[in-house]
Amino acid sequence: MAGNPRLICRSGELADAGKGVRFSLGEGESARQAFAVRFGDRVYAYLNECSHAGLELDWLPGEFFDADGLYLVCSAHGALYDPRDGSCLGGPCRGAGLVPV
Fold it and tell me: I need a labelling partner for 41 at 20 to 30 A (CA). Which of 16, 17, 70, 77 fits?
């Protein structure tokens, strides 16, 4: 998913384990949805697609973390992902991780 860098949001707008920012990659029918979150001192971005069923992860726009702010969670089936690398940590993702952007 390489391409030209573009401003998604200002770094300070992302709180640690807080609300993420959704954005589109591409245009028109081929556009894919993605998101960025801060975890620790870094920002991470992934396609907004659960590896289990391809559904968007957030239960409300920008809400990607579990209640404890430790994991990214799929709102549909509860799959858990490590925010640092998108790897599957449990649930129906069965080892398939998120796609980084």
Answer: 77
Name the burial class of residue 72, with classes exposed (0-12), middle (13-18) and buried (19+) by CB atoms within 10 angstroms of its CB. Answer: buried
Dihedral sign from CA coordinates of 28, 29, 30, 35? positive
Using one digit for the tens of pLDDT, what is the confidence trace for 12-71? 889 999 999 999 998 888 899 999 999 998 999 999 999 888 899 998 999 999 999 999
Report DSSP state, residue 83: T
Between CA 36 and CA 42 the distance in angstroms is 10
Per-residue tokens: 100: 């980084």
For residue 88 the two structure tokens come to: 């599957």
- Residue 21 CA to chain centroid, in angstroms? 9
